[in-house]
Amino acid sequence: MNKSLRNLALLPVWILSIFSKSKSFGENPVVGSYILNLLGLHVFRLLLAHGISNFRFFLLSPLMPKEERKRFHEDGYIVLKDFLPEEEFAALQHEAIQYSGQVAEKIEGDTATDWVRLSPDKCKELPACKRMLDVPGYRKRLQYCAATLRPPLYYIQAIRHNYVSGEKDPQKDVHSDTFHPTMKAWFYMVDVTPENGPFKYIKGSHKLSWSKIKWEYRKSLREARAGTDGSFRATEEDLKELGYDQPKAVCVPRNTLVIVNTHGYHCRGQANGAQTRVEIWAFSRVNPFNPFLGLSVKLLEKVRHKIIDKLTDHQSKSGKLKVVTANWSSEFKQDAK
Ligand SMILES: [Fe+2]
Fold it and tell me: Of the four, 136, 158, 213, 271, which is 20 to 30 A from 17 by CA?
């Protein structure tokens, strides 16, 4: 079936996807339609999604202290240092850095990112990780910042800069992950320095100012013409148009939790030579048009992870996902306590 016929057959699905997470202007002919965006579709989705997310933030406000919520909404991220007691952190750091099992690996430009998903089954082998995931102040803050009760997906993640030869890592371009509030969190096992590719963020860039809404409208028309993937990239010119400064590196010591609304503009920093950062990484993205808070039920989480296990298995067998053995521990001989 050719692309036009396929799109026609799928039209009801594309129309319904207006009220979903769908963000790819290139793949979704309704979301990415030039005419509909000329009529304001992107801005309509942007405003409605932000409004409904704010409603969910309001309902979940008991999960995070007021002062922290204020900082999170003002800056777009929050930094919580000395998050775990020293002994507990040392156990977690050892477990994450010394991990030597199978990992999924994604190569982007010159950077390799390795992930171990912390499913309930995986946590049986990793007791310090399990204890971390059960820390109420961790879980609740992530639920609040993701504006949902549904738990995030958790991973041990190693970002290995300059370990492969390739083009520029696309994550190092300033971008917004999607059009609505969405949460990622990094709990660092090593110090984050200007040399090891720190996360960078433009403070306040998650907010919908009038000038940003006008820019989003213009950008949606440019993206519709280009048919891109929907993670808006911000060029130097865009940053100037938006009145934003350059993104600033979030350099923090180990044992720091950084929770971010990655609707705001951000990127991966450059690293000085071959450098590896290891962290417990969490990610949550729900349908921004859903006003309900979702559920946190152990049985549902088990089922969710079993489904992801099956998909991952299938992807690795079909070659879509590369699975390798973790080999980052040797890079941290003097760093791990
Ligand atoms: Fe991103």
Answer: 213
Residue 1 CA to ligand 1 center (angstroms) comes to: 34
Any residues with CB less than 8 A from the CB of 164 and at least 6 apart, and which? Answer: 107, 110, 111, 112
Nearest to 253 by CA among 211, 190, 208, 330: 190
Domains of the chain: 66-208+243-332 (2.60.120.620)
| Nearest by Cα to 294 from 178, 193, 167, 183 | 183
CA of 283 to the centre of ligand 1 (A): 11
Work out the widest C-alpha separation in the chain, in whole angstroms: 61
At 1, is the pLDDT very low, low, confident or very high (cuts 50, 70, 90)?
low
The predicted-structure confidence for 9-53, as pLDDT tens digits, reads as follows: 888 899 999 999 999 998 899 999 999 999 999 999 999 999 999
Q: What is the DSSP letter of 29?
A: T
Distance 320 CA to ligand 1 centre (A): 21
Alpha helices in 98-209, H assignment, sequence order: 120-125, 127-133, 136-146
**Spatial CA neighbour of 288 closest among 23, 60, 69:** 23
Are 216 and 224 contacting, i.e. CB atoms less than 8 angstroms apart? no
Q: Which string of b and e fits 274-293 if b means at least 16 CB within 10 Å?
A: ebbbbbbbbbbbbbbbbeeb
**AA identity, residue 71:** R
Q: Residue ranges of the alpha helices (H) in the chain?
A: 3-9, 11-16, 34-38, 41-59, 66-75, 86-97, 120-125, 127-133, 136-146, 210-226, 236-242, 298-317
Q: How far is the CA of 198 from the centre of ligand 1 (A)?
A: 13
Are 162 and 273 spatial neighbours (Cβ–Cβ below 8 Å)? yes
CA distance 120 to 150: 15
What band does 321 get if pLDDT is binned at 50, 70 and 90? Answer: confident
